[in-house]
Amino acid sequence: MAALDWSQCAAVESVPGRLNGAWVFRNTRMPVSAVFENLEAGATIDEIIEQFDLTREQILIVLEFAARSLDPTLVPAAECPADAHPL
After folding, report:
1. Total domains present in the chain
2. In a domain, 62, yes or no
3. Is residue 27 part of a domain?
4. Which residues are CB-neighbours of 82 under 8 A, at least 6 positions away?
5. Which end of the chain is more exposed for a tag (fewer CB within 10 A), N or C?
6. Residue 46 lies in a domain
7. What is the pLDDT of residues 9-49, one digit of tens each?
């Protein structure tokens, strides 16, 4: 996975002394990388939610952040005008 600037994602944090400073979901010890590793292994978002006690919102925020970071031309749905139409 490409190196992302996780400091720009409000859903995660890096705390010195907690999991060696790895990026984790805010107020947890769950590494962000676990979501990507499980998705890569074929797990569904619902399976990850159940296995790691995360919320769908937490996971979607991280996935959207990663997608936007890797392709800055992507615009989050919340920022798209309601009357926008594909070309």
Report:
1. 1
2. yes
3. no
4. none
5. C
6. yes
7. 999 999 998 899 999 999 999 999 999 999 999 999 999 99
Whether 61 contacts 11, CB under 8 Å: yes
- In angstroms, the first-to-last Cα distance of the chain is 31
Task: Tell me whether residue 14 is in a domain.
Answer: no
- Structure tokens, 10: 């409000």
Domain that holds residue 65: 32-71
> Which H, E and C letters describe the chain, residue by residue?
CCCCCHHHCCCEEECCCCHHHCEEECCCCCEHHHHHHHHHCCCCHHHHHHHHCCCHHHHHHHHHHHHHHHCCCCCCHHHCCCCCCCC
Phi and psi at residue 23, to the nearest 5°: -75, 125
